[in-house]
Amino acid sequence: MMFFSSGFRRFLNVCVAVVIAVLMLTGCGSVTQKNKAIEPGANEIFKEMYSAVAVAASANGNEAKFLWMNNTKPFPYREASWADVTVFPCGEGKGNLELKATAYDQNLGTENYQHQINKVRQAWESRGLKVRNVGESKGMFQIATDLEHGTVVVYTAGVGGESVEADTECFSGFKGDESSAQVFPGEKA
Predict the structure, then answer these.
(1) Checking phi first, is residue 181 left (phi over 0); if not, alpha (psi -120 to 50) or beta?
(2) From which domain of life does this come (predicted)?
(3) How many beta carbons lie within 10 A of that of residue 136, not counting itself?
(4) In 3-state terms, what secondary structure has residue 161?
(5) Are 109 and 159 in contact (CB under 8 A)?
(6) Architecture (CATH level 2) of domain 42-185
(7) CA torsion sign, 47 to 52 to 53 to 55?
(8) Virtual torsion, Cα 148, 149, 151, 157, nearest 10 deg
(9) In 3D, which of 189, 182, 171 has the Cα closest to residue 87?
(10) pLDDT bucket at 35, cuts 50 / 70 / 90
(11) Average per-residue pLDDT in the chain?
């Protein structure tokens, strides 16, 4: 039978204590256990989206001309909450927001719409958003920004006017209690 010295036994005790402490601090889940990512809150997602849309709508000074809700109501560029936007079902107990604001019949002409695009690009970039070109056709140009939680905001300018469209990803928070929806002030460019 082998005997350990008292110094070695103390060392072993310390090692065992460290292993136990690490297991307690990190959790003892099984190898097959998956960590679920924590979803951001509905208010956080809406605030980010609404801010980007309001900035784009105001970049050219036309925010009062923008309409939403199928062009039936003035866009609430001063304040809004996610409860003001239609929630579309997109999964079991989940929803996503689609926000579209338009200002058509402006007759911008072929020369002005590129100027409109540049103003929105500058406004988004000044807030740290990365802007990418989406598409171009005769009489129209589109840019977009991808927000932190997967929301895509697309700004379109063309000879007929402007539009801003935003789509969120599918989140459970958008199928919850609308009374939890916070009202956020609109940002201006």
Answers:
(1) beta
(2) Bacteria
(3) 13
(4) strand
(5) yes
(6) 2-Layer Sandwich (3.30)
(7) positive
(8) -10
(9) 171
(10) very low
(11) 81
Instruction: Please report, to the nearest 10 degrees, the dihedral formed by the alpha carbons of residues 171, 175, 179, 180 taken in order.
Output: -20
- Helices H / strands E in the chain, number of each: 3, 10
Q: Using a cut of 0.85, tell me whether the model's pTM lies above it.
A: no
How high is the pLDDT of residue 159? 81
Q: What is the pLDDT of residues 59-77, one digit of tens each?
A: 988 888 888 888 888 888 7
Distance CA 153, CA 164 (A): 7
Residues 98-134: tens digit of each pLDDT:
999 998 876 655 566 888 899 999 999 999 999 999 9
Cβ neighbour number for residue 60 with a 10 Å cutoff: 23
Radius of gyration of the chain (CA): 26
Token pair listed for 161: 């006017």
